Every structure is written in structure tokens, then in C-alpha cells.
């Protein structure tokens, strides 16, 4: 194994911590619709997703190479820069998890890395062409393409199946939904787990442990896969609630269409080495599926909050990464200050989250009770004709009847 300095060990541990947050932050991408439609129980769904994320981590290293070799100039990067980038990414992940917004862990990492690199070595150390072609353009195109594909797939499924809603049809689509959810989990492992592999590999190059241009070592692939799988199993229940029931209402065939479209887009991007946001892809697919069913709706207030979070992710993580790098540049004590700040901020966010606990027992929101007006109308609606109700009693008492006066005695006969 490579020789390690203390700062390099800190960077590796922090990178695996980010990978863990990536896992529970993105569990919703694979399993939110499966849980909301009842195809799988919550704990079974996240366990299945965790295993497949681990398997997916071993399928490719193209995305890892994009990060470790293509995005920034690896020869001018210090391990402290990588540490600062991870601080920005972790804090953004935790903040968006706290409010239940499915933002992009990938863009948080990219933003943190770009901001820390610029603060350390200037804009020249960032490869702008790679940032545009493999990060920014896919960020815009991916949700649109996945949403259109999901919309068309949903309409096709309803067109072919007609209005069939028998138990056999529902079971068939639920089985398909489970299979497609597994495919999304596998695709997530091939894309998101590799981002941490790329970051750790970049740190190893910066620390002089491996040669520039090296592929991720086997232990890096294994540890990154294990970290994201563990985070996935923990379950990001807040974001699962938003994605599964807060954005739109899905039937099993819509969930199947959304997840199949998302998995296809993610696997294709992993093959091409695009650092794609699986969150953007799945969110676009869910919205497309919601619009694809006749009468289906998208809750645009929730969608607007998501879009704002997407737009803020890169610059917000970049600013935090740049600030952290400015402090770590002051020396070892600066790095210690940033580390203490990261731990304290993470603990504070977790404590705030305990005020309203969301877990597998309440992740699927129940139907709201009838309102006051609906209840009042139901109370005064007369029963159907011919229905006899035993408890139906008069509410207005009948007027009391006075006894009839005694008849007058006949007059006495005159004599």
C-alpha cells in the first residue's frame, strides 16, 4: 500500500465521509418511487440498493479518471486543496438533506474542487473545457433528456396497456419497477462511487503516493464502494419523501417508466465518462412520468425549490471550498481549524434534524384527512331513498297537544 502522511490520511477519511453522505443523499434516486408505490418495503428497498451500489462501483473507472485526470491540473494540487473541496461538498450535502431537497452530490463535489483549486492555484489550474463539456452541459441536458424519455415511455405504457388496472397488471409493473430500481442502483454505483475514487486518487497523486495518470488502486475502489453502500443502507428518508410523494403522485407503471429511463441515461453517461448528476436525471424522469399520465400533475412549488438548489450547488460548494482552502493555507493549525469546523457543523445539522425525525416508518406520507367543509357536507347529506336507519331520530320535538275541552252539558229542558 502507498505511503501515507497525516494530511493524506485525513483527506482519505474525509473523502470516504463524503461518499457516505453521497450514499444516503442519493438513495432516493433509486428507491423513492419504488417505496412510494408500495413495490418494496422501505428497509428491503434500501438494502437492495446498497448491495447493487457496491457491485456497480467495480464496473468502470471512466468517471473516476475524469475527476482525477481531467478536471483540474493534478500536478499543482496539494492534499489540503482536496480536503477543502470535500468540506464544501459535505456541508452542502448535509444542508440539502436537512431540508429534504434532492440536490446533486456530484456538483457539490465538483464545485468544492473547483473553488478550492482556484483559491490555491488560480483559474488556470481548472480545465475549463472539461468543466463545460463533462459537467455543466450534462447538468442541463440530462434532466431534460431523461424527462422526455420518461414522459414518452409513460404514455406508451398507458397506450399499450389501455386502462387495464387489474391485479395482474399491477403486479407486473411492480416487478418491472423493482428490476428497474435495481438497475438505477447499479448505475448509481458506476457513476457516483467513482467520484470519490477519483478524489482519493487525485489526493494520492498530490501527496506523491502514486504517479500522475494512475488509475484508482483496488483498495480505493473497494473502500469507496463500501462507503457509498453503507450510506445508501442508512437511507436518506427526508429526500426519499420529497422524491417519492412530494414531487408528484406515481402509479407502478409510471415508476417503472421513470426508473428505466433514468438507468439508461446514467449507464450511458458512465460509459462516456460524464460526471453526471444522478439526482438531476432521476428528478427529470419522475417529473416526466408525472406529466405522462392523463390527469397527472407535478407539484411545481417543490420542483422550483429543487431547481433553485441545483443552480446554487456549484457556486455555494465552490465558495465554501475556497474559504476552507484559504484557512488550510495558513498551515497545520489552519487545517485543524477547518476539520473542527466540519465536525461541529455536521453535528449541529444532525441535532437539528432530530427535531422532526423522518425514517422508514413515516417516509410515505399518509393521505390528508378530510377538511372541515367536506366533513360538514357529509354530515348533512340525506340518506338514499328507501334506506332505513335505526338511529334516525327527530331533532325538533312535536308541539305538545292540549287536552280537548270537555263537551258542554246539554241545556236543561224547559218545563
Shape: globular
Query: N- to C-terminal separation?
Result: 146 Å
Helix proportion of residues, in percent?
Answer: 55-70%
The amount of beta strand, in percent, is under 5%
Radius of gyration: 30 Å
Q: In total, how many domains does the architecture comprise?
A: 1
Show unreliable segments.
Answer: 367-396
Our count of helices gives: 14
What order do the SSEs take from the amino end to the carboxyl end, as H and E? Answer: HHHHHHHHHHHHHH
Structural class: mainly alpha
Q: Mean pLDDT, rounded to whole units?
A: 78
Number of strands: 0
Biggest β-sheet strands, sense, barrel: none
How would you explain this protein's 3D organization?
With 415 residues, the chain is mainly α. 70% of the residues lie in helices and 0% in strands. The radius of gyration is 30 Å and the shape is globular. It starts with 5 loop residues before the first helix and ends in a 35-residue tail after the last helix.
